[in-house]
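Fill-in record for Protein ApaG.
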Amino acid sequence: MINSPRVCIQVQSVYIEAQSSPEDERYVFSYTVTIRNLGRGSVQLLGRYWLITNGHGRETEVQGEGVVGVQPHIAPGNEYQYTSGAVLETPLGTMQGHYEMIDADGNPFSIDIPVFRLAVPALIH
């Protein structure tokens, strides 16, 4: 399968202190996802699925069309980057999931998004 889609996912999360309210158990995080098309043909992201787990083990599932309101086409050698957010009731949690995509021939495939942490940085004294 030399022409199979090759897509790389990279995620970086950041704690948003200004929008958070620990006394109200509200911890706001942003995450930036970079989707790189390393294959030979175009791909399109059609949908997403997230499993968000807070520090108490409570899971929330989120799924829908596209990301941040778009279903981007990504040409070979190009990347698409977006930033979104999540709100947790705990200062530590995780996210993981997958993207539903199609290749240039209309063949569907799924790309896993490895687990990443949402964490309030430790206070440095």
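KEY FINDING: The first strand starts at residue 7 and ends at 15.
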